[in-house]
Amino acid sequence: MKTLIVFYSNTGNTSKLAKIIGDKLDGETLEIKDQRNRNGLIGFLRAGFDAVTSNVTIIENFNLELSEYDLVIIGTPIWAGRLTPAIRTFLIGNSEVLPEVAFFTTHAGGGSSKALLQLEELAGKEPLACLSIEKSKLKEDSSDSEQEIDKYVKTLQNKFE
Ligand SMILES: Cc1cc2nc3c(=O)[nH]c(=O)nc-3n(C[C@H](O)[C@H](O)[C@H](O)COP(=O)(O)O)c2cc1C
């Protein structure tokens, strides 16, 4: 199956998970870049505000044909219980050309249920599978998330057999 992993990551956790999933599925990755500064106290507060108020942002252009893939896997960090503005903006602009989708999130322990619903609503289709990993489980010395990630990847592979 031809797979693309689309993700946004500010501090590297979601990027790390995207790479793990990409390697396991032999997929390509596309990092969505938010043009707004999300660093420092002001950036953090603004990030939370934009997530809560469902604001869009400006993302860098990319030149990939999403419809050429069998599966697009979309990953986002959780901000204030929501998905990130960058992934919101990506989905608003591209939902109509998405093939089958799957979602994943990283968070700090607060869970992802609301954000997963937002992802489904914005993508306009049910995901084949969802994965939420707490960031501490992605540390170098942790193998806590291995089974969960493998199960997610297997579920996706089985759908295309
Ligand atoms: C503005 C902001 C809000 C956040 N809100 C939550 C939250 O509501 N629940 C949670 O579990 N983690 C929250 N986090 C933590 C991130 O979801 C977590 O660190 C994630 O792994 C970051 O991904 P990244 O390293 O790819 O940017 C928040 C982080 C930021 C910057």
UniProtKB/TrEMBL annotation:
Superkingdom assignment: Bacteria
Record GO terms (molecular function): electron transfer activity; FMN binding; oxidoreductase activity, acting on NAD(P)H
Leader sequence residues: none
UniProt-listed InterPro entries: Flavodoxin/NO_synth (IPR008254), Flavodoxin_CS (IPR001226), Flavoprotein-like_sf (IPR029039)
Domain Flavodoxin-like residues, every copy: 3-157
Protein's recorded name: Flavodoxin family protein
High-level lineage: Bacteria, Bacillati, Bacillota, Clostridia, Halanaerobiales
